[in-house]
Amino acid sequence: MEREETREPVGPMARMAATLAKKLRLRKGLTQAKEGALMGYTGAAISAMERFVHPVSDEMLVKLEDVLGDGLGVFEELRVPVSLEKLPELFRDYSVIEQKARALWLYANHIVHGLFQTEAYARALIAGGFPEPTPERAEELVIGRMARKRLFDRKPTCEIELILDESVLLRPIGSPEIMREQLLHLADCARRRNVNLQVLPLDAGLGGEYAGARGNLSVVETPDHNLAVYLEIQGESVLLTDRAKVSKLVQRYAKIRAQALDPRTSLGLIERLAGAQR
Length: 278
Fold this sequence. Notes:
Structural class: alpha/beta
Distance between the termini: 40 Å
Oligomer: single chain
Radius of gyration: 21 Å
Strand content: 5-15%
Order of helices and strands: HHHHHHEHHEHHEEEEHH
Number of strands: 6
Shape: elongated
């Protein structure tokens, strides 16, 4: 499997994986060509990884575990942090905070929030984006997005609340089959004990108030009980920690929640829409 030697950003976790791989290769007395042959790569690809020319891929980490891991699982453990490093640069700092959060309060008003996306839904979104990513980059981004999902089962538990604008549920992405799978996944998530999922209905503004008009909003409670807000639009992002700004946005989130359907009614709506996708 030839790997083109193109320079890409190589993060600290990918560098750690490459450095460890080189040390274990030398300990086993393997040349780069021999290791590459055992893994299904060229010696040049192994060299590029070890010299930090190209970041180690998720597939390569799996192969490194088989060839060099000796059953310790070190490369398997590195798969998630290495995958998170391949997320867009504007998102990378927030992703670290997200994975350590005590609680998340999320509002999404145009697509399903990344934490709640199925692999097929995420792939359709990413591959269809602009500028269009290469197939290899699209796959890296999908893997990175899926790696974020371990937060659902993390110990200590992270309490996660998501409010979805109803339009998100009605906007088909990829295909009817992909959308139905996504809706069923949302329903499964809503049944988790550490997840609260609510829908902001399309008619929420009929009373003259619509708190969700200003777009997506992510509120994070950090391990030391501080609050931060992450905002992202059109490829730009900002992480807010200023207390006054955070307070205003937390209050806005509370308004959105107050206008949303209750969790049981929201789950029923999602289940009905999933049935309508058949």
